[in-house]
Amino acid sequence: MRLELSPAVEADLRAHAREAHPQECCGLLIGILPDDFGAPQQRLAAEESLRLDNTWETETRGRRYQIDSSVFARLERELAERGRGVLGVYHSHPNHAAWPSPFDLDHAWPSYAYLIVSVRDGVDRDARVWLLSADRNSFVEGSVVQENAPCP
Amino acid sequence: MPVTLLIPAALRPYTDKKASVSVKAETVAEAVAALTAKHEGLAKHLLDENGVLRNFVNLYLHDRDVRSLQGNETPLKDGDELLIVPAIAGGETLTETLTKEEIARYNRHLIMPEVGMAGQLKLKNARVLMIGAGGLGAPMGLYLAAAGVGRIGIVDFDTVDDSNLQRQILYGQSVVGTPKIEAAKRRLEDLNPTLEIIGHETRLSAANALGLFSDYDLVVDGTDNFPTRYLVNDACALTGIPNVYASIFRFEGQVSVFWAEKGPCYRCLYPEPPPPGLVPSCAEGGVLGVLPGVVGALQATEAIKLLLGIGEPLIGTLLTFDALEMNFRKLKLRKDPKCALCGENPTITTLVDYERFCGVQQQEVKPVSEEKEMTVEELKKKLDADEDFVLLDVREPHEIEICKIAQSVVIPMGEVPDRLSEIPKDKPIVVQCRSGARSAKITGLLKSKGYDAVNLAGGILAWAEKIDPSLPTY
Asked: Of B337, B322, B336, B312, whose CA–CA distance to B257 is shortest?
């Protein structure tokens, strides 16, 4: 999987991660759904990022995120009307590496790009993107590239 | 009857890219079963190992979550549309169950409705950072570990010393000389092996505090000096976590909870530290051994209440304890709107140099640069050569009972100004105390009165260390 982020999208989601620190932030990556959406070789281009409220109960919000599903349902409908869809989900890992946790794996959906931004001491560090494997047993790391960057 | 399931884009790779699938079903359960029978690849994403709908899969019927209707048994009508909505969640793995052994261990908690299974799980998932594993840290560590706080971090860089055992009940004779972190970890892991005890063998500083604190839910401060107290307060406010504070001296203690989001912080109370040397530490003034036991247990109580979210924590309240009178008093504390840290227009937005803020450096540098001091070796030579001079010990009578240099004359510090006539002006005077701080002040006083006085560097502690190891120290 290859996830393209425009500099503006990347800057915005990193800013979100910093502002939410030490709590965990979450949001969606929006763009045109490719024909092979969900395939391991998919190429996704995020046109915008959408900040969402973390609805997990306050005391554990620093360590988990949750997106209200009624909000999600409404968004998917609205996006479909303008030919867009949810490409994936981003969230931050305060003081942890940008690797998915067992909890992330348990709760992951297929097809979506899961982008994780590591934040330490209020500073955003690396961002890595992950795709759930077809057997649900693991995540496969994809590549994050800046839009217009040459192909590796 | 025929109903339609609307498939989110993420699941369409499993439905041959179809956005909707029609099945025949009477209930929600039947519809899901029919869908997964038709498209087998969907089953592992929608259902768990037991065939139950995964808790992050939501089904909506006419914009209502079927869980709020009759769940799986919700009846369906001809032409109904069932929308599958991903519940998006992730984050750290938190424990959601207790093992059989833990249930046995925490029985006395579990049978109280105020704690119960939900509360015990809160404790298990909680992360508490203890600053210092000394007099206060010892009972706090023991009670937090016994209560089942899942992750306990300990910041300390000291080793266990004989003089600690009078009150630091985490340690015994066998671990004297061992780093406190190591000894504390061993003791707490023995007390409760289900926990994660993390040792941070470092001096807490402006450079590492924010990084350390943001890994924890709560800080319990067991330190005994002003620079660290301000550092802990500021770092807690900047990371948004509560600080369970205490201080102890001789027979008295104080406890409060400083949580800038919900009440005052330490700076609301004391915007500036006292001048260095004005407030004596326990090492100088002494402390009743059981006092940190009482006060540390109070701190542990407050920490556990905050983690459980029960009772009235000491936010905005200072609890004072007097062991001699055996009374507790509660004083109201107000949040200062002008507080430089947590007020309306804060000027402190990052950590500063706390040693300098509390004037510690200036205090330590002064005597060295201005005054020539005598070493214990030089004193030994003078005594051996039987030179004519006076060795003046300015310590208190109860200190003299512990140890004394044989040839010294004793006048307690506070009595010197009134007893100057007893000190000969025609002889050199060497002034001595325990470590050299009080005697430096008296040396200055004597010099100002025209005496030929010099301070003994390091006091009787240095004498015991370098000249006469047979002397007991304190």
From this structure: B312
Residues in chain A closer than 8 A to B215 (CB atoms) = 95
What the block records as the tokens of B295 is 């006060």
- The alpha-helical segments, DSSP class H, found in B194-240 are 209-213, 226-239
**Residue B386 φ/ψ region, left for φ over 0, alpha for ψ in the -120 to 50 degree band, beta for the rest:** left
| A22, A66, A135 member nearest B239 (Cβ) | A22
CA distance B150 to chain A (A): 14
CB < 8 Å to B210, chain A: 121-122
Judge: A63–B92 Cβ closer than 8 Å, yes or no: yes
Confidence of residue B94 (pLDDT cuts 50, 70, 90): low
The answer to whether B268 is a known catalytic residue is no
Our answer to whether residue B282 is catalytic in this structure is: yes
Alpha helices of B82-195 — where are they, by DSSP H? 100-105, 107-110, 116-124, 137-147, 180-191
The CATH H-level superfamily of A2-146 is Cytidine Deaminase, domain 2 (3.40.140.10)
Which of B425, B423, B420, B426 is CA-nearest to residue B408?
B423
CB contacts, 8 Å: B81 with chain A: none
Kindly provide the ipTM of the predicted complex, given to two decimals: 0.85
Strands B151-155 and B127-131: parallel
Task: Kindly report the backbone phi and psi dihedral angles of residue B197, in degrees, each rounded to the nearest multiple of 5, phi listed first.
Answer: -105, 120
User: Does B75 sit behind a cis peptide bond, omega within 30 degrees of 0 on the bond before it?
Assistant: no
C-alpha radius of gyration, chain B, whole number? 33
Tell if the CB–CB gap between B92 and A101 is shorter than 8 Å.
Answer: yes
Q: What pTM value is reported for the model?
A: 0.60
Catalytic-labelled residue, pool B282, B342, B358, B403: B282
Residue written as tokens 């055996």?
B326
Instruction: Identify the bridge partners of residue A115 per DSSP, sorted by sequence position.
Output: A90, A129
Instruction: Please tell me if residue B18 touches chain A, with a CB cutoff of 8 Å.
Output: no
pLDDT in tens, B129-149: 999 999 999 999 999 999 999
CA distance B296 to B169: 11
DSSP classification of residue B307: H
Q: How far apart are the first and last CA of chain B?
A: 89
Per-residue model confidence as pLDDT tens digits over B290-303: 999 999 999 999 99
Number of H helices, E strands in chain A: 3, 9
What distance in Å separates residue B89's CA from the closest CA in chain A?
4
Residue whose C-alpha is closest to residue B90's, from A76, A52, A6: A52
Task: Determine how β-strand B151-155 pairs with β-strand A123-132.
Answer: unpaired
CA–CA distance from B223 to each of B48, B203, B248, B320, B389 (Å)?
49, 11, 10, 17, 42
Cα–Cα dist A119/B336, whole Å: 32
Q: Quick check: A72 and B87 CB within 8 A?
A: yes
Residues of chain B contacting residue A110, judged by C-beta atoms under 8 Å apart: 10-11, 13-14, 45
CB contact under 8 A, A110 and B13: yes
Helices (H) and strands (E) in chain B, counts: 18, 19
Spacing of C-alpha B41 from chain mean position: 51
